[in-house]
């Protein structure tokens, strides 16, 4: 999977940020020991709310008690997704880089008749790695019975020159013309840490 190792332009709009209207959907997000109503209310470090903040201070992340999980984010507006950007604290600023996410899968929730028709067309007409992904997995671990399409499977690289990494959605998925109000980022593994920290 190609990854942009150049600095990401600050003009890149982050639809997932809380300040831009992003909201965590708890019914599609992994539960964890740090996520209490008090933490969510005050935005305490370690809560899922940390993912929606633009803060890369060490420890200002969502702590998951194991190496996998998922977060669902609802956007303020419906979005035609072309890329996903992942940040983590730079390796030189932490002693625990192994808790960074490694293998990730971005899903889009398929909603509306038009999107469902495009989804079925994509499923029946795609080939190659995307076809393999569509065949292997139908939905993320938590789906609440909703239909999803895998948008991109990718690896976050802790050894890359840039800690902010941009991953393109495959052309065939973008060309399908689906738009999404909800995405799920599924973390399938980290870099061998005992827990996960998602910024």
Mind explaining what this structure looks like?
With 199 residues, the protein is α+β, with helices and mostly antiparallel strands. The model is unreliable at 1-7 and 35-44 (pLDDT under 50). The strands form 3 sheets. The protein has a 5-stranded antiparallel β-sheet with strand order 1-3-8-5-6. It has helices at residues 37-42, 113-125, 128-136, 171-175, and strands spanning 23-24, 62-64, 69-79, 83-87, 101-109, 148-155, 164-168, 180-190, 196-198. The longest helix has 13 residues, at 113-125. The chain is globular. It has 4 helices and 9 strands, in the order βαββββααββαββ.
Précis, in short:
By secondary structure, the chain is of the alpha+beta class. The chain has four helices and nine strands.
Please outline the helices and strands.
Layout: E1 23-24, H1 37-42, E2 62-64, E3 69-79, E4 83-87, E5 101-109, H2 113-125, H3 128-136, E6 148-155, E7 164-168, H4 171-175, E8 180-190, E9 196-198
Antiparallel strand pairs: 1-3, 2-9, 3-8, 4-7, 5-6, 5-8
The dominant shape is: globular
Q: Compute the separation of the termini in Å.
A: 21 Å
Low-confidence parts: 1-7, 35-44
Fraction in helix: 10-25%
Strand order of the largest sheet: 1-3-8-5-6
Question: What structural class should be given to the helix and strand makeup?
Answer: alpha+beta
Helical segment tally?
A: 4
What is the C-alpha radius of gyration, as a whole number of Å? 16 Å
Oligomer: single chain
Strand content: 25-35%
Largest sheet: 5 strands, antiparallel
Elements, N to C (H/E): EHEEEEHHEEHEE
Number of strands: 9
Give the mean pLDDT: 85
């Amino acid at each position: 999977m190609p990854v942009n190792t150049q600095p990401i332009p600050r003009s890149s709009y982050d639809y997932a940020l809380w300040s831009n209207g992003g909201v965590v959907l708890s019914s599609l997000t992994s539960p964890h020991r740090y996520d209490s109503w008090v933490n969510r209310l005050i935005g305490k470090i370690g809560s899922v709310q940390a993912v929606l903040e633009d803060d890369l201070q060490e420890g200002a992340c969502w702590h998951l008690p194991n190496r996998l999980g998922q977060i669902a984010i609802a956007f303020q507006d419906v979005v035609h997704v072309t890329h996903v950007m992942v940040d983590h604290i730079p390796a030189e600023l932490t002693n625990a880089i192994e808790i960074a996410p490694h293998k990730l899968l971005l899903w889009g929730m398929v909603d509306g008749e038009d999107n469902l028709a495009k989804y079925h067309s994509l499923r029946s007409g795609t080939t190659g790695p995307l076809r393999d992904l569509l065949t292997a997995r139908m939905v993320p671990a938590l789906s609440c019975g909703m239909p999803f399409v895998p948008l991109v499977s990718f690896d976050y690289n802790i050894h890359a020159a840039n800690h902010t990494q941009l991953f393109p959605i495959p052309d065939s998925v973008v060309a399908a013309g689906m738009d999404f109000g909800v995405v799920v980022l599924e973390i399938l593994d980290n870099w061998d840490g005992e827990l996960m920290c998602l910024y």
